[in-house]
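debug: dumping io for the single-chain case to check the tokenizer round-trip. Nothing else runs in this session.
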Amino acid sequence: MTYSSCCSCSGLIAFFRSRMLGKTGPVAGRFFCRTQRIRINTLMLPIIQPARFTGLTMARLLAALALLLVLGACNGSNAATEYERQLKACSVAEGNGMLDSAVLACTMALTIAEEQAYAPDQLSALLFRLGQLERQRGNFQEAESLLQRSLAIEDTLGVSAATTTRLIELALILAGQDRWLEGAELLEQATPLLPGLAGEDRRAAANAFRGYSARLEMLGHAEQAERFSEVFRQLNGS
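debug: decoded output
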């Protein structure tokens, strides 16, 4: 299938201009493809919120404009090219702290991946990334749903480092909902798998165990808290 202007330049620019002028109200983003129309009911590129426009820095404005160019390319492209474009847009937005825009771009990439029957590991990776973004936005229920879907895929692929990272991320999401004991169960499941982690994944796991250790101590679960503290020390190399 060939995608033609899946992100409308005129629509994006019009929306961006309306935001700069301080117009408000619900916006439904429409994305048109050559053989089908996808309609996503969400805020269309909420790069600028009118109430905070006066505090917008020039660097952030330029980053927003750069994102528009990435998202709004109007020449025809195939699905694979559009998929890569949306992933790039997601990274640009996330790198500049524009989480709403990052979610929009990653959601578009996920839509393409699902329509084109991409490999399960690619779908899982997108669901995982979206879940992380939603957690950062404070949308914990949506984040939990995304991570559950990703974890379900990983279960069909066999236990791997990806399974471990998803258990830990889901534990962080549950912590955001004050569901510490449920999250602790996930960390218990992840503990035997931790040797497979490295780099940023290992650091994220260490921080999760440290945070849970402190909270469990406060909740009166001293034994589990101490066990998690020991796991943190091992992960942290101390």
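debug: round-trip ok. The first strand starts at residue 2 and ends at 3.
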